Amino acid sequence: MKELTQEEWKEQLERDENAEILDVRTQEEVEEGYIPNAKNIDIYKGQGFVEEIQKLDKSKNYYVYCRSGARSAQACTFMDQMGFKNTYNLIGGFSNWTGPKSE
Which residue intervals define the domain Rhodanese in the entry (predicted)? Predict the structure, then answer.
């Protein structure tokens, strides 16, 4: 896992043709807004989260976020242990996000 600031995340994401954005927040949080093109897999779903993560392509680069950066850091660590090569955690999470948003 690599921790990225808001600016680093935006710049790296724009240049990364192998990027996938992963939102690990709850459905209620997602309904309040999200980063465009993000796939939502709620980390609080326990085994359901594990099963969904196992379906993902490990060759992709995953940009992971939550509300503040704590749950996404946990998700990145878990994904790293499962063999994902490139996971990036958004420092400060969606609550500090200044980039494009969808509602």
Answer: 15-103
